[in-house]
Amino acid sequence: MRNLKLTLAYVGTRFAGWQVQPGRETIQGILEDRLSGMLGEKVRLAGAGRTDAGVHARGQVANFLTAAPIPGIGLRRGLNARLPEEINVVAVEEASETFHARADARWKEYRYRLRSGEGGTPFEAPFTVVVHGPLDAEAMRDAAARLCGRRDFTSFCPAQSEIEDKVRTIMMSEVLEEGPVLEYRVRADGFLRHMVRTLVGTLIAVGRGLVEPASIESILAARDRRAAGPVAPARGLVLERVSYDVPPATGDAGGAG
Amino acid sequence: MRNLKLTLAYVGTRFAGWQVQPGRETIQGILEDRLSGMLGEKVRLAGAGRTDAGVHARGQVANFLTAAPIPGIGLRRGLNARLPEEINVVAVEEASETFHARADARWKEYRYRLRSGEGGTPFEAPFTVVVHGPLDAEAMRDAAARLCGRRDFTSFCPAQSEIEDKVRTIMMSEVLEEGPVLEYRVRADGFLRHMVRTLVGTLIAVGRGLVEPASIESILAARDRRAAGPVAPARGLVLERVSYDVPPATGDAGGAG
Question: Are residues B86 and B112 in the same domain?
Fold first, then answer.
């Protein structure tokens, strides 16, 4: 069997997220359907990040096992020809037989785009959340930096979460400013459900002056969902990149060329 | 009566173009409907450029007469709250009573975005036309420059056009290159129906080596639609800006602030 690694970009606006759900259009569901049709066998994809409904990706990674001898370049082109234009296969690579897109991810990077006040264009609207009134970017940068490290993120995921271990390591957490547009960039070894959007909701509260940057410590220490801010809207979020320790590719099967 | 000048941005993908058509969703139709609802009077808009179905705008201009005393800023905000997110009012200004968005335009600038080969993302797909195979950007630049000046553009508009005078002046016609992405920028005192897209279709033929840059002269001289290239797809085209000789504003009625 071959193990193929796909790098994927998508505009998530009209989809019900990554994960297969009966009767809903999902990224995983559409990809599995098109792959199965092309290869003449039932394909099951493992995705690195289970992006929510409305969330986008520039560098989602998924893998699947197949016996089909199709070259990677042919697979990428054939798949792109069959996919809706919101979903694009950026690269196809041969991976080692044990490679797993989720289990082997060293870190994932998400980006979240905010605009403070009016002046946005309809070109950026599907990828940008507009916050009314000014945002204190300096306070947000301060708060963002305080999120770094190995922490218990219980306060930043739904209270009814079934996951036991809510300790994750954030190795990058920063706010970039370009005029009225702010971009939050965060890298971690793993993310809990709604974690990035709850971090952003909390950073917005900081930017509005409702929460002190130093309060990040007590919000984390509370281990209580009610301590953090609201879940920010999905449209501002992009899964930017997934990184792996050891390059999973044993050979280029028809990459981005 | 007040004469209000609107600057508009829109993503044209799902609309049947600028101009009102019975039973179709058009930019002008939606704007007139929302304006009429807000102001409690029948509003008729004059637009600077009649963009085709699927064409976008960053700086379309329109004007309308109204007796309503609403401040410009309130009009802009109220209208944006009522419009679909693909359409945005960028600015509202008071214009002189004789100002007419189309008749008074000194020039309009359109931009057209092409990608040669694969590698595009779904984020840019709605605004970019993918051309398979390489494009000779240098030859396209050469051909683009030859379009400048006061010329008869009969070869670049539909044969059955009802407009008598097909002489227009192009004062800017250039091809910008950024890696595999090419952008054609063109400014003229007026454009015929399908003119920009036919110029682009012809430039693509030049880029592919099917037409010599120097043939632009004979294509213009032919005054025959069959001499030029095909009409390039609408999605790559953006009405970027409309410029007026004398600033039409007699005062800021609630601009972009």
Answer: no
